């Protein structure tokens, strides 16, 4: 607990939201005073009640507590907004803080009303508890198999600041402008608009470049809270630059952890597009390959089945000219000018052991590129998702 | 064989293109005289050499033979176009017809050169053989588990005409403007432009409304040949109307067979969007749900996991307003105005036995609709595709 940024404490408690689940399912981020706050959210048009509540309250750029529950997303539920408000109100009373300063995040099944009696019993207990960063990360897990968190330090002149973050996510992963649930806490001095800009920038190069199954959830939220009370880092200052770089590192670490925990995944696919006519084309091409079921299943096996990469690329909608197109797998040029080189034999036996597979497409049409991280698709993914009710 | 349209014969032979595969892998459609011909093709930007050759030759609207092989798609191969031309030339000489009138279709692995010596040996034999519609349908199968074909009759005034078709396909199925490989033969009198218009219309409501895995192949081709020599059916004539309707029926039958044979599939998902703001929005919404890995795995299990349908819909890019949105599964209203009704309990136990699951979304924003047929996603799909090399 000593490693948290100054001015914050964490807590967890067990409400028993999901029947038969024997672990804490509530987490609390509590700032001793109101702090600067910013968030980015899912672009899904069906947003959960907690997302709508939190987004509205963040307009003021201030927060003092975040209440998070797993086991139920409070999405498409009758009275969902009322329930989210009640949760916030219960916590505000238990902590003796202003209700407007409480944010709420929920993750889990869609379409089932929250078990409010259980929450009414557990939230006052939660307010009294304490937890480590690891315990908080554990309490927000759904199908995750391990907790995702990191603490780091940054030095600005003579001062040292801390930055801690935690996240959840394993399925329904193709965040756009946000991620499943992620939180960054710092004691560096940052005004909410600067914090928000840094968050947006970090998300673009971390959570927005990963995909497990091409699905954008209804609850994606990434919140950043800054408790520093000195004169805030101004735009362009050294402090701001160092903080941005630290936040990017934290975000990339958490995003990579989410990807690594991709349901049933055994490999990370690193998909790079170069020489695209536009950035949009580069992203289209990269995501078409990253989300191709045939590509993803191919690489769960041991064969360099690159024909499926070509086919997914050709159907992506991006401008592609076969005679300009080179394809490399793990650095081996398997197709040059759109035609097989016969060198894929060199890959035999090398892919089954690889934890990461690099797929690089040079389109030869322009200067734009993109990189997306994906996972392979295994029978385990199907098994998990045929049984689990999102 | 007596059931084929007049003026056509079929043949099959075994070239042994795929090692260890003990069945015919060549099929021939041979018209006794040059006939009217039309085709629609994949929109994938990486098109196989056979697609490029056949498309160019079809500009004249005439053909006399179609040579089809399974086991190798002749895509991304060095010298692919030369090989396709040589295949056509070999057949033309063996049949004693003009080479320009020979079309070529190939399906199977990508990136491996065709075994030309085997084809040189087999094509002259093929030209001498005879086969039934069923045998031809069998010879073009790849991962298909059953042959797909149908013959029907249409009566125009006092005259009777035949229409026969066959197709292949089980994976890499999301045709756009075409399908995997499909063929329609008729002895009705149709000029090539009328035939092409009829084919385009039929494809829109058949092969263009199915998806197994959201992948558009590099070889998709649907060819129609008409041998009738009487005065052709004019635009708007009764004959044209009857033929269009028969061709649509044939196409829908073949497309449904392809879908039913979707790799590892145990259920057909019938996804209907109503009340969309535009046709484009309706298609986007329908395909987003149809290709959602989470929706597809959910319905391979027995639960009505409709939250995933909502989430896929919300992320589809189509205009959606939760308060206008109704969702029905097998006719049961599971969400009204974007909120759970609690009626999904009525579905328990009903989905595990169902061969077809109807998912209907009423968006309440306009007059446009769309319907897409998809399949569930099972562990078997992953098993098949981790092993099979496309």
Write the topology of this structure:
2 copies of one chain form a homodimer.
Chain A: E1 8-13, E2 26-41, H1 49-57, E3 62-72, H2 80-95, E4 102-109, H3 116-128, H4 133-139, E5 148-156, E6 159-168, E7 181-186, H5 192-204, E8 221-226, H6 238-260, E9 268-276, H7 279-290, H8 293-300, H9 307-314, E10 326-329, E11 332-336, E12 339-340, E13 356-362, E14 368-375, H10 379-387
Parallel strand pairs in A: 3-4, 7-8, 9-13
Antiparallel strand pairs in A: 1-2, 2-3, 2-8, 5-6, 6-7, 9-14, 10-11, 10-13, 11-12
Helix pairs in contact in A: 1-2, 2-3, 5-6, 7-9
Provide structural commentary.
Two copies of one chain form a homodimer. By secondary structure, chain A is α+β, with helices and mostly antiparallel strands. Chain A has two domains: 8-260, L-amino peptidase D-ALA esterase/amidase, CATH 3.60.70; 268-387, Ubiquitin-like (UB roll), CATH 3.10.20.340. Chain A has ten helices and 14 strands. The first copy, chain A, has helices at 49-57, 80-95, 116-128, 133-139, 192-204, 238-260, 279-290, 293-300, 307-314, 379-387, and strands at residues 8-13, 26-41, 62-72, 102-109, 148-156, 159-168, 181-186, 221-226, 268-276, 326-329, 332-336, 339-340, 356-362, 368-375. In chain A, strands 1, 2, 3, 4, 5, 6, 7 and 8 form an eight-stranded mixed beta sheet that branches. In chain A, strands 12-11-10-13-9-14 form a six-stranded mixed beta sheet. In chain A, α1 (49-57) crosses α2 and α5 (192-204) crosses α6. The longest helix of chain A has 23 residues, at 238-260. The first copy, chain A, starts with 7 loop residues before the first strand and ends with a helix. The mean pLDDT of chain A is 89. Chains A and B meet through α8, α9, β12 and α10 of A and α8, α9, β12 and α10 of B.
């Amino acid at each position: 607990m000593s490693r948290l940024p100054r001015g914050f404490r964490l807590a967890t408690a067990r409400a028993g939201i999901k029947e038969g689940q024997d672990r804490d399912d509530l987490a609390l981020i509590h700032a001793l005073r109101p702090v600067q706050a910013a968030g980015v959210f899912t672009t899904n048009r069906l947003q959960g009640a907690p997302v709508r509540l939190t987004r509205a309250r963040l307009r003021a750029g201030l927060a003092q507590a975040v209440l998070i529950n797993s086991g139920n997303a409070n999405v498409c539920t009758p009275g969902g907004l009322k329930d989210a408000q009640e949760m916030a109100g219960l916590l505000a009373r238990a902590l003796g803080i202003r209700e407007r300063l409480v944010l709420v995040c929920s993750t889990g099944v869609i379409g089932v009303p929250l078990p409010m009696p259980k929450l009414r019993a557990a939230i006052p207990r939660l307010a009294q508890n304490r937890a480590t960063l690891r315990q908080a990360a554990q309490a927000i897990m759904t199908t995750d198999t391990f907790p995702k968190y990191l603490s780091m330090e940054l030095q600005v002149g003579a001062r040292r600041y801390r930055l801690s973050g935690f996240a959840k996510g394993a399925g329904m992963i193709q965040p756009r402008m946000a991620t499943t649930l992620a939180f960054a806490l710092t004691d560096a001095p940052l005004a909410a608009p600067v914090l928000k800009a840094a968050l947006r920038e970090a998300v673009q190069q971390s959570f927005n470049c990963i995909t497990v199954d091409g699905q954008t959830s209804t609850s994606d939220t990434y919140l950043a809270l800054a408790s520093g009370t000195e004169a805030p880092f101004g735009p362009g200052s050294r402090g701001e630059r160092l903080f941005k770089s630290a936040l990017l590192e934290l975000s990339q670490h958490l995003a990579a952890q989410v990807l690594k925990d991709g349901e049933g995944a055994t490999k990370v696919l690193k998909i790079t597009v170069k020489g695209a006519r536009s950035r949009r084309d580069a992203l289209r091409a990269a995501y078409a390959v990253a989300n191709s079921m045939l590509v993803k299943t191919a690489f769960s096996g041991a064969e360099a089945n690159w024909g499926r990469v070509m086919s997914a690329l050709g159907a992506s909608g991006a401008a592609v000219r076969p005679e300009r197109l080179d394809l490399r797998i793990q650095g081996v040029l398997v197709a040059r000018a759109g035609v097989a080189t016969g060198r894929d034999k060199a890959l035999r036996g090398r892919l089954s052991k690889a934890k990461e597979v690099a797929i690089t497409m040079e389109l030869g049409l322009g200067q734009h590129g993109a990189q997306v991280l994906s996972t392979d698709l295994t029978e385990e993914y199907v098994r998990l998702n045929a049984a689990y009710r999102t």
